[in-house]
Write a structure and sequence with these properties.
The protein is mainly α. 84% of the residues lie in helices and 0% in strands. The chain contains seven helices and no strands. It has helices at 3-12, 14-22, 28-57, 61-93, 100-113, 115-127, 132-157. Helix 1 crosses helix 2, helix 2 packs across helix 7 and helix 4 (61-93) crosses helix 5 (100-113). The two termini are 23 Å apart.
């Protein structure tokens, strides 16, 4: 199934969508591709905000973009791998039966599936700037991301590894 179809299916039922991804078998390359795609989309979502910041402060846009690229494409994936492992260990405390792969896939897929709202957040940050609108869109992204992640983690940890 196409990634875009999986994303729309995730908005309808995140647990079922993740179970479908898990049924494709344990493929670490697929999980890494979801993670990197999600991080690249978050980086792209930052560009309007960075352009606004560079224009208003006089900082160099290239420097801001380089720092954001380093953070989202090189550092964030490492931190997200650690967060996924930690979430699996916490799930084990609550008698989770899944695997580290399932926990990774739940987190990485949640990031990618919630990325359309992150793009909207970037546009609001770039064109409108700080304010109530940005806070509302940011909160909506956070709620959707947590919904996808927790639902996916429950689905992944509910099945035997």
């Amino acid at each position: 199934m196409a990634v875009t179809r999986n994303i729309t299916a995730t908005y309808r039922n995140p647990g079922k969508a993740l179970r479908g991804l898990l049924s494709l078998g344990q493929r670490e390359d697929r999980a890494l591709a979801y993670l990197m795609a999600g991080c690249v989309v978050v980086f792209i979502a930052q560009l309007p905000r960075l352009a606004r910041e560079a224009h208003l402060t006089g900082e160099e846009l290239e420097m801001l973009m380089g720092a954001s690229l380093m953070a989202w494409v090189f550092i964030a994936p490492l931190l997200l791998y650690c967060l996924a492992a930690l979430s699996h260990l916490v799930a084990r405390l609550f008698r989770g039966q899944g695997s580290y792969y399932g926990a990774r896939l739940a987190l990485f897929w949640a990031l990618l599936a919630a990325s359309p709202l992150m793009l909207l957040n970037g546009l609001v940050a770039g064109f409108i700037g700080p304010g109530l609108e940005l806070q509302v869109v940011g909160l909506a992204w956070l709620v959707i991301f947590l919904w996808f992640w927790i639902s996916g983690l429950i689905a992944a940890e509910g099945r035997a590894a």
